[in-house]
Amino acid sequence: MDTFVVPGTVESLGPIREFVRSKAAEAGLDKKRAYRLQLAVDEIAANIALHGYEEQGLTGDIEVQAEVEPDRLTITLVDSAIPYDPYSRVMPSDLDAPLQDRAIGGLGVFLAINNVNEFLYRFNDGQNHNIFVVQRESESTAT
Amino acid sequence: MAFSLTSEARGRIAVITLTGELDASVAGQLRDAVEQAAKAEADRLVLDMTTLDYMASAGLRGLVFAKQKMGANVDIFIVGAHDAVFETIEMTGFHHSVFMLDTYDAAQIEAP
Fold first, then answer.
1. Torsion angles phi and psi, residue A73, rounded to 5
2. pLDDT score for A139
3. Which entry of A15, A25, A52, B96 is 20 to 30 Å from A70 by CA?
């Protein structure tokens, strides 16, 4: 398992995406799935930096763990900000509503959950663990 | 790739060109550009995404912000969004509320 530790600020989002990109390449994900994984991780990392740390007046790190297994790539974000379960967030139910009527919260979590095969949340040892799993085998067998 | 943005006013049309990667760290730049367009009383907003490689939900919130600041009647045109960016817009249903164009179509955008 590889780990990459960055300050829990929005300035770290680019470096986190770059780390995820390199792991996606190592796992042989195609361009589309690599992009979607980056997006999912980026959305949760942004929430940790802005809502977990900054809004609470806290500072701390985000640890990015990557594990490439034969069938899957798992990225885990570990932070020591306030406990926050993304699944506690009410999903936007207004995806077809006109923009001016839309709530702007919850979009990031929605994109995180819908852009990986599996998204899990655990709170262990006083830390948030946001876990993203992508299957390495391509869903389509198109040549 | 680093993010950059340029703004241009073509009469009542505000054109904002986005380049690179749009994430939460640079979303303020898009909000500022939208506020400028609102102040200039633009009634159409064109977001040129031809050179935008990546867009997080921060970009989508920029669209909501534009409707709130510039008025619900403002038409928003998204030009040249790459497949992945397009997919995010579609997945969240935002394509129902904006015009998605492959290229800058003057006939449609500048129609009286």
1. -115, 125
2. 55
3. A15
